[in-house]
């Protein structure tokens, strides 16, 4: 049966992300510093995922702490050995990657084809966040790209969806430990 014109199935976001406000600020500031106004930078929010789709970030791991991320003005790369070491550490800590967060040089905050295919997790409900201008403030949520991996691929959240599915909370964050697996 053919769908009528103007009738579209609406995508339903089944994932939410909760981040301690202090962790969020720490991640954005670290990305800004690492980018130094001239190269991309990235990190991984790590935490827990509940059966209802809520992901709660408890800490962050940065690509440049894991390995040489080979960052350039328009790209960065996390080597496979660093990913394997990261996953081994996460298993020990009983945590999972809940979101990738990385910078882009300009205001464009969609996911490139490279971003879409080179993800840290292929789990439905995983988030990917893109911060413009190499992470320089102001850090307005409406200027940041929030994307969720769904069955059919990546979906960029609208501002309305963002207000429902993303939450900064004033919950404890104790600064975390910098995870380094460089060897």
Plain-language structure description:
The chain is an alpha/beta fold and 183 residues long. The protein is 25% helix and 27% strand. It has helices at residues 21-35, 63-66, 80-93, 113-117, 159-165, and strands at residues 16-20, 42-49, 54-62, 96-103, 127-131, 145-150, 153-156, 166-169. The chain has an eight-stranded mixed beta sheet with strand order 7-6-5-4-2-3-1-8. The longest helix is centred in the N-terminal third of the chain and has 15 residues, at 21-35. It starts with 15 loop residues before the first strand and ends in a 14-residue tail after the last strand.
Structural class: alpha/beta
What is the CA–CA distance across the termini? Answer: 58 Å
Number of strands: 8
Give me the strand/helix succession. Answer: EHEEHHEHEEEHE
Apparent shape: globular
* Helicity range: 10-25%
């Amino acid at each position: 049966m053919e769908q009528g014109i103007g009738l579209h199935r609406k995508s339903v976001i089944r994932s939410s992300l909760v981040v301690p406000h202090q962790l969020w600020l720490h991640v954005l500031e670290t990305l800004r510093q690492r980018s130094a106004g001239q190269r991309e930078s990235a990190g991984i929010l790590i935490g827990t995922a509940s059966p209802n789709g809520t992901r709660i970030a408890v800490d962050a791991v940065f690509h440049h702490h894991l390995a040489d991320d080979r960052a350039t003005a328009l790209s960065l790369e996390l080597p496979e050995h660093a990913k394997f070491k990261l996953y081994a550490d996460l298993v020990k800590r009983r945590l999972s990657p809940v979101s990738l967060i990385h910078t882009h040089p300009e205001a464009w905050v969609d996911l490139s084809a490279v971003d879409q295919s080179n993800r840290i997790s292929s789990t439905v409900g995983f988030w990917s966040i893109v911060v413009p201008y190499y992470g320089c403030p102001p850090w307005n949520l409406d200027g940041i790209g929030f994307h969720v991996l769904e069955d059919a691929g990546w979906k960029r959240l609208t501002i309305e969806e963002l207000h429902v599915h993303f939450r900064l909370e004033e919950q404890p964050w104790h600064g975390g430990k910098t995870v380094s697996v460089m060897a």
